[in-house]
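Risk mitigation, structural track. In case the binding assays with adenosine-5'-diphosphate fail to produce interpretable data, a predicted complex structure has been prepared as a fallback.
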Amino acid sequence: MKNIVLFGAPGVGKGTHALLLAEKYDLDHFSTGEMLRQEVADGTPLGLRVKSLMDRGDLVGDDVVIGLIDKAITSTDKGIIFDGFPRTVQQAQALDFLLKRHQRRLDCVISIDAPREELVRRIHERAAVSNRSDDSDEATIRHRLEEYEEKTRPVVDYYKVSGLLVSIDGSGQINQTSMRLCKVVDQIIH
Ligand code: ADP
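Fallback model:
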């Protein structure tokens, strides 16, 4: 039962690749972004609380996303691919704690890397086909990338220290990145 974190900046393609990997390796795919968008769409109290934060491109509070991930981990016996979580060092520490509580451990953290101009280009491309409000506003996109640099990038060092981090080039076509990812996952699984 393997547990993998897929890590990377907004727009790098975490969601796309997480879905592909989940299917290929029969893992459960947990995306905090998707979970939060569902709460907003359902108009739950939590959704109402986080909507304006997400629309501005702010990170949602650690307690909120840690609660969602706790529930998700409890709901499955399969291996897991985490997408968009953890995004702060506090979330990374909470994930270690939660996994231990469920007699699991993290097997690998794969960081997908791409240059900033490419991230912005992909977010614009996605805005044309999705109805994500945070993809269509210039200031929000910029702020999400700032939040990433300030709060999420330190998570890389957290995992470097634990020896779990593998970085791959995600600047090319989807199938190129996918091949690189599968090579890493194949090594963990076999
Ligand atoms: P992207 O990677 O393109 O920014 P996500 O779907 O992962 O897209 O996240 C969308 C938004 O949801 C984020 O900008 C943030 O407001 C919120 N969010 C998602 N995951 C987290 C998290 N782990 N911690 C805090 N906020 C989160």
